[in-house]
Design a protein that fits this description.
Chain lengths: ~300, ~280, ~300
């Protein structure tokens, strides 16, 4: 993975007004120029000129943004614009794909995610991920949740029991499964399985939970439950969610990043680009960029 | 064209027909003798105690499995979870080459190299000679490594990437993902690999004949020469037993046992494979 | 405001790291051992008998005098037996596969039984095929004796299941859209199959057949029971002729305790390995060639 430098970033310095988590100050948005990225106090992630390529194909490029802590940030945009790819760079899941390269600098607090001395295993312990199609392990419900803690330490049985109960409660699944912890996780419904996957991530006590279209395989009722869950979770975790459902982004997130695919006319290559990153409320009412406006009003698909 | 299909049925019928009647005829003659401990059907007076054949088969197949399971599984895990695309492209053909070595050649190697240079020199128990069960077990193990490796690799590679990613996302290392999640998820396929490999080792004639000899010694020491069911059939088949005699019929008796055991194992193994395919394809 | 610096260094415990490392070593050693074994076996064979390698080995006939001993009879015997076996097995196998894939009805009891049957036959130990040959073909009702014909039938039975399975896979790999396209143009089922499916499946079938044949060449056990272990010093003269095959010629020399014959056995092994290697190489090249031709 290529990285630029390991010096501490400039993100601690707020530009016009410092932003922290879920207390936006709406008056200051008027004074910010559209081309300046939103800055936060102590952001969880800081991306500078980030691009991701697979061999010769550049999936997404020119990403500059910060992601605030204890809040929900959404990535939206038409399919193929690289939002999932970008999400996966945040916990180095792209490392698993041969030929994937990350350019630019990606900082998690003040540490370079892709520095040679950074351990991918440690990164992923701190930055968890929930996937599009629920993928519980073919084990019991208990063993699914216990997997993370067991692998990361040697908890005693009583500690494990506590962790499992706590995680399932945080994922709003405890009441439904507390009497069948030893049954196979594959017997749960889709929505339950996804909440199980969330509980599984929570069990290793991450700081961030990344969610890659977590509700796209679920029915509306299950989706609603997960969205309610996310609102609860953001008090303790930072959440970044990729969704192709604009209304969902509008419902749950405080900040939204909008991407498009740009076609390079000479090479006919498609690359994802970050168009706008803004407070959700503003993005869906008076966005800065006309392309954003076209997308959120449905003029562009 | 449908009639062509019936040929395959004919073959099976043929096998059954050739084996069963002679077996029953023979069994009627020698029923209790089977439980004896001396196997000398071709001598006079003939003795039909099957114990030496059973122990011989058991010891050689066990040694083969002990060798093949670790190496075969290690190769499979390497191919499915550790190797890069290019490395896989190189290693898979190598295993195919290993699979292509004829049993005569493996037997030769066991007879000329393994027995004299390793077993005879270093085996502490007893006095190993030119023929040893240990040598046969080792070479049979090498024979079945590719079976375990390719069937298990198929199974492990079919485990969806998303499951691996989920495990990695919890902070697991590559080894932990491969052994605690992938192996677990692909278990029925791996079991199938082991069963099929066992069946192959069970039916292997040439290696046992060349390396373990043709003396049906009842012993627990792998340094001794032994005869397996399969190698007995080979051995007796070379000779000129009179058609229809009891001695001749013993070939078919042992053949029936061999056929039945491998049939059951193969059915079982294929069952596991279909169970695995249902889950992931 | 963050004042402490975040570290992403590995917090994996020593214990886990040791296990990770040892496991990786274990895997690598296994792979390297497999590779090394192949080289070692060839090395030892060559060491033992490399000096003997010459065209004479292939042109001379077996004899008790090592200077004039060769493998011609067994090589020719192998070619005759495997050749006829292929001749018998391929048409039957291909037709069976075609029938099962294209012309049998939907999965019913009959086809399921046949499939189960074929799967089981594929796993039967080779020596059992020798038994059936002994009972019915060499002796018994047909009583053809220990001849090329009997051996060919036995080997044909051995490779039949493999050919059926491989051909079925080759047929299945043909995209259904080819066939549907032809049918939509008014072709009959048989026309669609014969003009589209079969030609498309030929490369896969051919490659698979070559591999099945190379396996048949290396087989020893079934023909042990069919009298191929005799000391044969002539080439086969017909389906009713006596014969021997290369693997069993090796076997015979190996059973002899005289050192000259052990060297001959090693030499024969090298020849056998060379033949197999050539056949597999041919199969791979054939597959690549047809793949390239198709993608042009």
């Amino acid at each position: 993975m290529s990285m630029i430098s390991n010096q501490s970033q400039a993100s601690k310095v707020a530009a016009s007004e410092p932003r922290k988590g879920s207390n936006p100050m709406s008056s200051s948005t008027a004074s910010r120029k559209p081309s300046e990225p939103l800055k936060f106090v102590d952001p969880v992630f800081t991306l500078k000129d980030v691009a991701v390529s697979y061999g010769n194909f550049v999936a997404v490029s020119d990403v500059n943004m910060q992601i605030p802590s204890h809040d929900i940030t959404a990535f939206i945009g038409p399919s193929g614009c690289g939002k999932s790819t970008l999400l996966r760079t945040l916990n180095r899941t792209n490392d698993l794909i041969p030929g994937a390269k990350v350019h630019g600098s990606l900082f998690y607090h003040d540490a370079d995610l892709y520095h040679p001395s950074a351990s991918a295993v440690e990164v992923r312990r701190r930055i968890g991920m929930v996937f599009q199609k629920p993928n519980p392990f073919p084990k019991s419900i208990y063993e699914n949740i216990a997997f993370g803690p067991k692998v990361n330490g040697r908890p005693k049985k009583s500690e494990l029991d506590d962790i499992v109960e706590k995680s399932l409660k945080s994922a709003a699944l405890w009441d439904e499964v507390k009497d069948r912890l030893n049954e196979s996780a594959l017997g749960l419904s889709g929505g339950q399985q996804q909440r199980l996957c969330i509980a599984r991530s929570i069990a290793v006590e991450p700081e961030v939970i990344l969610m890659d279209e977590p509700c796209s395989a679920l029915d509306p009722i299950a989706t609603l439950r997960i969205e309610e869950l996310m609102a609860e979770l953001k008090k303790q975790y930072t959440i970044v969610i990729v969704t192709h459902n604009m209304q969902q982004a509008a419902r749950v997130s405080s900040y939204t990043a909008f991407y498009v695919t740009e076609v390079n006319l000479t090479s006919d290559r498609r690359t994802g680009k970050l168009v706008e990153f803004n407070e959700t409320k503003k993005m869906f009412s008076t966005p800065d960029d006309e392309r954003t406006e076209a997308y959120v009003t449905g003029k562009m698909g | 064209m449908a009639s062509a299909t019936l040929v395959s049925v004919l073959v099976t019928v043929g096998i059954v027909l050739s084996l069963i009647p002679t077996t029953f005829r023979l069994l009627r003659e020698i029923t209790t003798q089977i439980f004896g401990t001396v196997w000398a059907p071709l001598f006079t007076p003939s003795q039909y105690g099957m114990a030496p054949l059973l122990t011989g088969t058991f010891i050689i197949v066990s040694i083969a499995m002990v060798i093949a399971i670790p190496i075969g599984l290690a190769s499979a895990i390497f191919l499915s979870d550790y190797a890069t695309f290019n490395l896989r492209r190189i290693v898979k053909p190598i295993l195919e080459i290993l699979a292509g070595i004829p049993t005569v050649v493996l037997g030769l190697f066991g007879l000329y190299v393994v027995n004299p240079e390793f077993v005879e020199k270093y085996w502490p128990i007893g006095e190993p000679l030119a023929y040893t069960a240990l040598g046969a077990g080792l070479m049979t193990g090498i024979l079945i490594i590719p079976i375990i490796a390719s069937v298990a690799d198929d199974a492990l590679s079919s485990v969806p990437r998303a499951m691996r990613e989920a495990a990695y996302a919890l902070g697991a290392t590559r080894r932990e993902v491969a052994t605690k999640v992938v192996l677990n998820a692909g278990l029925s396929g791996v079991v199938a690999a082991l069963i099929l490999a066992f069946a192959r080792a069970f039916g292997e004639t040439t290696i046992a004949l060349m390396v373990a000899g043709s003396y049906p010694k009842l012993s627990a020491n792998p340094g001794d020469p032994m005869q397996t069911m399969a190698s007995f059939i080979g051995f007796a088949g070379i000779g000129d037993a009179e058609v229809g005699s009891s001695a001749y019929n013993t070939i078919f008796l042992v053949g029936t046992v061999l056929f039945t055991v491998t049939l059951i194992l193969n059915i079982l193994g294929n069952r596991f494979i279909s169970r695995f395919r249902e889950a992931y394809e | 405001m963050a004042t402490t610096s975040t570290s992403l260094e590995s917090r994996v415990s020593i214990d886990r790291r040791i296990k990770d490392f040892s496991f990786t070593i274990f895997l690598s050693v296994s792979i390297i051992a497999s590779l090394a074994f192949i080289f070692y076996i060839i090395y030892r064979l060559y060491n033992n008998a490399g000096f003997l390698l010459s065209w004479d080995l292939v042109t001379f006939f077996p004899s008790y005098d090592i200077d004039t001993a060769g493998f011609q009879s067994s090589i020719m015997g192998s070619i005759w037996v495997v050749g006829f076996a292929t001749l018998f097995a391929v048409p039957v196998g291909v037709m069976t596969a075609l029938y099962l894939e294209e012309f049998a009805g939907k999965r019913n009891r009959f086809t399921a039984l046949i499939e189960l049957n074929i799967q089981n036959l594929a796993g039967v130990p080779a020596v059992v095929f020798g038994l059936i040959g002994l009972a019915f073909i060499a002796r018994g009702p047909l009583s053809w004796g220990f001849t090329v014909g009997s051996a060919a039938i036995v080997l044909a039975m051995l490779i039949l299941p493999v050919i059926i399975i491989i051909t079925r896979e080759a047929i299945r790999a043909v995209p259904p859209s080819y066939k549907e396209g032809a049918l939509a143009l008014g072709a009959t089922h048989w026309q669609a199959v014969s003009k589209l499916v079969i030609p498309s499946a030929v490369p896969g079938t051919a490659t698979g057949t070559i591999l099945a044949v190379s396996r048949a060449i290396g087989e020893s056990a079934p023909l042990l029971l069919l009298g191929a272990l005799s000391f044969v010093t002539f080439n086969p003269t017909g389906l009713d002729s006596g014969f021997t095959i290369l693997p069993l010629a090796i076997f015979k020399y190996a059973s002899d305790s005289r050192e000259e014959f052990q060297v001959l056995a090693s030499a024969g092994s090298l020849i056998l390995l060379a033949i197999l290697f050539a056949m597999n190489l041919f199969a791979i090249l054939l597959r690549d060639y047809t793949l390239r031709k198709r993608n042009v």
